[in-house]
Amino acid sequence: xxxxxxAPKRRSLGAWALIAAPYLWLLILFLVPFLIVFKISLxxxxxxxxxxxxxFDLAEGWQAFRDNLSELSFENYIWLTEDDLxxxxxxxxxxxAGISTLLTLLIGYPIAYGMARSPRSIRPTLLMxxxxxxxxxxxxxxxxxxxxxxxxxxxxxxxxALGIISEPMVILNTxxxxxxxxxxxxxxFLVLPLYASLERLDGSLLEAAEDLxxxxxxxxxxxxxxxxLPGMIAGCFLVFIPAVGEFVIPDLLGGSDTLMIGKTLxxxxxxxxxxxxxxAVAVILLMILVIPIVLFQNQQQKMSERDG
Amino acid sequence: xxxxxxxxxxxxxVVGFSFLYLPIVLLVIYSFxxxxxxxxxxxxxxxxxxxxxxxxxxxxxxxxxxxxxxxSASIATVFGTMAALVLVRSGRFLGRSFFSxxxxxxxxxxxxxLGLSLLLLxxxxxxxxxxxxxxxxxxxxxxxxxxxxxxxRLVGFDKSIEEAAEDLxxxxxxxxxxITLPIILxxxxxxxxxxxxxxxxxxxxxxFTTGPGATTLPMKIYSxxxxxxxxxxxxxxxxxxxxxxxxxxxASIVTKRQQVQRERDERAAxxxxxx
Amino acid sequence: MAxxxxxxxxxEFKPWESPDHEPFIEFRNVTKKFGEFVAVDNLxxxxxxxxxxxxxxxxxxxxxxxxxMLAGFETPTSGQIFLDGQDLAGIPPFRRPSNMMxxxxxxxxxxxxxxxxxxxxxQDKLPASEIVARVAEMLRLTKLEQFGKRKPHQLxxxxxxxxxxxxxxxxxxxxxxxxxxxxxxxxxxxxxxQFELMNLQEELEVTFLIVTHDQEEAMTVADRxxxxxxxxxxxxxxxxxxxxxPNSRFVADFIGDVNMIEAKVAxxxxxxxxxxxxADGFVIESEQETDAGVGDSVWYAIRPEKVRIVQGRGQxxxxxxxxxxxxxxxxxxxxxIIHSKVGENDDDIIRATFANVSRMVxxxxxxxxxxxxxxxxxxxxILTG
Lengths: 308, 275, 385
What we know:
heterotrimer, B: mainly alpha, MetI-like fold, 11 helices, C: CATH 2.40.50.140, 6-stranded mixed β-sheet, 9 helices
């Protein structure tokens, strides 16, 4: 009926201004910067300020523009394929993010499930407890783990005191620390959508299953799990996508051999001051992330369509 | 789901929430540690808080951060609310899906890319970097979060309330301020708070877009952390955590109170038809 | 408000019958499309001043769209709408002299009852003293005096409905538009409110246009009803005309319960028409004349309450008399609806209303009983479309 059809209507000046203001802001401060990144990724490095030779300079006129066009090079991209540091970084970013996502799911599912099955009266409190860390500084939460994980840190002290280990384990500055950091930091992102889909699950479905002769554990497997799948997928995307580009966690918790693309980009930019190469790294990182982002958007769209 | 929790459920909740909170609790405890060695408990002391007050650099950074956060959250709230209105209300227009793409992309985009691209923009237009560039950068990504928060509030909004106002002679813009804004205000405030904490929290984007004289608190903390864990930083972190916790809990208590009051009113009103 | 009968006033009120009466609201060839979907299809309609007019139809028939075009929330794709002689094209909703009562009530949740009612008056920049007086009057009219300071969520459904009504009437609009105004109330409250609406309309002398899918509601409150289907008007007439002389199968079916008997025209004369039912061959004599020719297929529509039913068996071939076998009985308390099978097929059923006038009947009509049903020459209508 009529409500479903958002017909284009004649708009007043004010309505156009309403659209134009945020639109222009995002065009100038979100889209244009990307085009610049792309442009600079095709330029050459220079020892100057800024440290690159501009690829286009409109001030020099059309002829210069044409000259520039012919000088454009994919050199930086070729460089990325030749130096194995980069593709190893990409690969290891995706692997680390993937493993961390799985771990987050394994830890997050029982939490979300426990929340959904707790009494209705305490659910809002539990929900707030999950959200609260999200409001506290990310940096602080990562930093807190350094004191716990380092060689003379609290975890090792505890394990030594309990006699479980005889000498300190090396955890900080390894990939394990990175996994712990990612799981810890992104856990709320997974628990929230998962909890939402579990909470919505109608309890009478499980009763119906049991009534029809299905034991509880099987009912979980056949009813609960499939119906929570949309929440699971959404949560996993919300962990995986930002984890791939993560910088703070591998930098503070990872070791010198922990390769993650966010960190590589940071080092390339701040330490090596190679702007064109770091731009190229950013462009490729973006291209890697486009696939999961689009998949995620599609899934969200499908979910919202189904919910009406 | 309505069934009661099993022991497995309770255990997983206890373990899960301990995992979430233990690191922060430890950090808070050790901020009161007498000893300089972070991992050795040397007795209770507040001396690190006292020494914070002497640390000019840290205080400067905190002041810069608060200013950036306040200004960027406020602008982001205005633009984010506009964007949410456009997404929910404007129907179709040329480039609508492109627009919504630009709103949602920053939410999942790695911060390093956002930071790098904004820096390159500021370099390209020859803008000296400092307070204003960080502020612009934070506003840009924070407005997307605000848009999402306000949008969720607007989706459940009965549009006929606005139509009623217009029907009674109120022009559209006035309707927005008299009717729509007061009703979506909780969402707008939540959006502002989110934008504020995101800005307060951000290390990566600020590191790219800032310049001399505008070092933010996360940048300061980061550079000190890289040198090792210090009780002073624990103290800073504790203060930040305390502020946010108090803020969030206060906000949720207020909402909860209003909700309870509202439910009580509605129950009381229910019987009126009978009399 | 005092419950006085408005019968005498209503009996005299028939402006649509005099050709020199100017319409107050006029839809002239109005079409509204949403994309490919035609919500209102080349529709023309005249509504007169002080009339209580109902737009009746199922969901998606275009009745709400028609009303929203009058209020200004939708723009007609083509055609014109006039209110009190003024073409409404291009006039935004907030400048139109009509007010609307919304289905969801659309009360402003952050304002008290008084503020809600005063809202429209404030937009007109009326002096404060007049606003106060007008709000007090509206509170009195809707019996909400002691609730002025409350917020909408502190009110019951019935009270919210009255606030919405008070708010939309406060500005003394030229037309009050009511979009399913009683849909959210329970049955008893709804019936009470219908009479209150009628009294209020009489007292304020405002033209009311109501949109509803509830035929009883439309028949109770309205001077005239427009039955809508697929964006067009099927019939525009008084409630009695609509019920007793529906102009089509759609209207007959939509309003009330009806037996629809397929028949062929057997004979036409100045005295009426003679039909033979297709299913069972029984003869129907009607005093109505029809455009259909002899041999044409028509429908004979007759309301169950116009069919008399007694036990026994009648002679075959007597006009307006049918033999049947009781198939189903729906006991409704005041009446029973008796479904009797009159033909070979399972759907050759005629329903008759049997008034339960005494509490105990010695030999009540039972399942499988043989019954004979009969009706008068003017009991039903012949429909060709």
